């Protein structure tokens, strides 16, 4: 388990500049948390005591009540902006389904960075890049109608497929609604609006797209990352 955790840590963009030996040392005080769906990972305005790395499952972060959720999956980190700046968390993060997290004490990480300036700079650069991606994603989502948001998301799942395609939603529809910044009823209406474009959603996680090219009129796959 330790070797697997070390491997995931080193693959993380935030820790890419950390040597294998230093990464192993950082893990000496880590914790593994297994949380149920809806459990709070950290709360807005709370003290940043840990930096979290998602090992399995997903967590959702609510930037504010009116914005789409940000979803983080295996290999992503959460809480780094608060840890690295010494400020309280700016949003609340919750488990989106069962999730396994690595919790790295903030004190351990900051003590290491005090003597490894080049790694600190690399982490800040990685954090800034991630923030730009998140801002872009939220901005693009808010500029689209609900049907366009859904179309863009489905196209991202379809990838390079052409013609007819069948995609599977990676999480429950209620979580998809949160992710796209809408309530479940609005999501249902968005699916209904896309029916005349050949989109048929099953009662499970399967969605059929009759013609990917036609659906691209309503959403740009390149503008959204699933």
UniProtKB/TrEMBL annotation:
Q: Which residue numbers delimit the Cyclic nucleotide-binding domain?
A: 14-104
Q: Which Pfam families match?
A: cNMP_binding (PF00027), HTH_Crp_2 (PF13545)
* UniProt cross-references to PROSITE patterns, sorted A to Z: CNMP_BINDING_3, HTH_CRP_2
Q: Which domain of life is it from?
A: Bacteria
| CDD domains the record matches | CAP_ED
InterPro entries associated with the record: cNMP-bd_dom (IPR000595), cNMP-bd_dom_sf (IPR018490), Env_Response_Regulators (IPR050397), HTH_CRP (IPR012318), RmlC-like_jellyroll (IPR014710), WH-like_DNA-bd_sf (IPR036388), WH_DNA-bd_sf (IPR036390)
- GO molecular function (one): DNA binding
| SUPFAM superfamilies reported in the protein's UniProt record | cAMP-binding domain-like (SSF51206), Winged helix' DNA-binding domain (SSF46785)
HTH crp-type domain: from which residue to which, for each copy? 144-213
| Keywords carried by this UniProt record | DNA-binding, Transcription, Transcription regulation
GO CC term (a single one): cytosol
Q: What is this protein called?
A: cAMP-binding protein-catabolite gene activator and regulatory subunit of cAMP-dependent protein kinase
Task: Look up and give the organism this protein is from.
Answer: Paramagnetospirillum magneticum (strain ATCC 700264 / AMB-1)
Species lineage: Bacteria, Pseudomonadati, Pseudomonadota, Alphaproteobacteria, Rhodospirillales
């Amino acid at each position: 388990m330790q070797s697997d955790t070390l491997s995931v840590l080193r693959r993380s963009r935030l820790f890419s500049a950390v040597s294998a030996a230093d990464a192993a040392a950082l893990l000496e005080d880590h914790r593994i948390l297994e949380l149920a769906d809806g459990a709070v990972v950290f709360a807005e305005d709370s003290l940043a005591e840990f930096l979290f790395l998602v090992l399995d499952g997903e967590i959702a972060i609510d930037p504010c009540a009116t914005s789409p959720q940000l979803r983080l999956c295996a290999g992503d980190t959460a809480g780094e902006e608060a840890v690295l700046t010494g400020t309280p968390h700016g949003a609340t993060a919750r488990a989106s389904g069962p999730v396994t997290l690595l919790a790295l004490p903030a004190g351990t990480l900051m003590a290491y960075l005090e003597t490894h300036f080049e790694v600190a700079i690399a982490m800040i650069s990685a954090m800034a890049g991630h923030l730009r991606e998140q801002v872009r994603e939220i901005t693009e989502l808010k500029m689209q109608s609900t049907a366009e948001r859904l179309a863009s998301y489905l196209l991202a799942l379809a990838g390079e497929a052409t013609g007819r395609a069948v995609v599977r939603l990676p999480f429950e529809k209620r979580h998809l609604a949160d992710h796209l910044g809408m309530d479940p009823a609005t999501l249902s209406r968005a699916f209904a609006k896309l029916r005349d474009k050949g989109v048929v959603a099953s009662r499970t996680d399967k969605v059929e797209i009759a013609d990917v090219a036609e659906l691209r009129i309503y959403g740009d796959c390149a503008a959204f990352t699933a």
